[in-house]
Amino acid sequence: MTSIVHMQNFLSEATDAVLTGENLDSVRNRYSIFSTEGEELIGLIKHINQTMVTVEPSPQFQRRLKAELIGKAQPTVAWRIRRLPARVQFAAIAAIVTTFIVILQRVLMVVMGEAHQRRRREQALPEES
Questions:
Q1: Are residues 83 and 42 in the same domain?
Q2: What is the mean pLDDT of residues 22-45?
Q3: Is residue 87 part of a domain?
């Protein structure tokens, strides 16, 4: 039975050997690991090495990461809106206010309609009795 540290060192060197194309027999001999567990782990290392592909990060990701690491503030939506010309800001505010008024008007119409129907039902009930 090998210790955990011994096995970790073996796996580290085996991974390095697979990445560099070195012969794995020298690593096995150095650590005296010839068990099926060691072979299974080496097979897993080889499989991962074959299936992993190099991926280049996008320029946008690189800029964002650099800004995060350096500590620059990211431009937010509010920051972008503040940089717009005054007439565009005014138009956006007017559109938001108009939308809010239309929605409020619709809600009030529904509420008033329900209240009106309730009053009509209440007035109709005493006449039937």
A1: no
A2: 85
A3: yes
